[in-house]
Amino acid sequence: MKYYESTINTMLSDINKDVRHIVTDDIRCYLTDYQERKKSSKVTIDNIRRILSSFFSWLEDEDYILKSPVRRIHKVKTGTCIKETYSDETMELMRDNCTELRDLAITNLLG
After folding, report:
1. Comparing C-alpha atoms, which of 71, 57, 110 is closest to residue 88?
2. How many C-beta neighbours within 10 Å does residue 31 have?
3. Which one of 8, 54, 102, 109 is most buried, counting C-beta atoms within 10 A?
4. DSSP annotation of 74
5. Which residue, 5, 14, 107, is CA-closest to 54?
6. What percent of the chain has pLDDT over 90?
7. How does 52-87 read in b/e, with b if 16+ C-beta sit within 10 Å?
8. Is residue 26 part of a domain?
9. 52 plus 88 within the same structural domain
10. CA 49 to chain CA mean position, Å
């Protein structure tokens, strides 16, 4: 909860407008500036976008604002990391070197 509160307060402080007057371009500029200043990853920026989206959606649901300015800001696309799999030979070597039953169970879960 504290992370959410901190994220929202930081945005409100940086934009320095009443929430009823914040528009989509304000949010876009904030996210871009934040990423450049903090050298943040795309994942971090998308997490902030999601938090702001939830906040403004709540404001919209409560009729405090007419329309969420985050609605038109789409999810930030991030690359996926494909991890290499172990070969059958490598799996057998790992199994053969297990000295504890727990280690063998973990190794079997991998393969």
Report:
1. 110
2. 20
3. 8
4. P
5. 5
6. 76
7. bbebbeebbeeeebeebbbeebeebeeeeeeeeeee
8. yes
9. no
10. 8
Same domain, yes or no: 52 and 95: no
Q: Nearest-CA neighbor of 66 among 4, 2, 20?
A: 20
Q: Which of 50, 74, 59 is nearest to 22 (CA)?
A: 59
Q: Look at the chain and report how many structural domains it folds into.
A: 2
Residues 19 and 12: beta-carbon distance below 8 Å: yes
Structure tokens at 14: 């940086």
Q: How many CB atoms lie within 10 A of CB 32?
A: 11
pLDDT tens digits, residue range 20-62?
999 999 999 999 999 999 999 999 999 999 999 999 999 999 9
In sequence order, what DSSP letters do the residues of 51-69 get, joined into one string?
HHHHHHHHHHHTTSSSS-T
For residue 110, the enclosing domain spans 81-111
| Burial of 94 from C-beta contacts in 10 A (0-12 / 13-18 / 19+) | middle
Does residue 66 lie in a domain region?
no
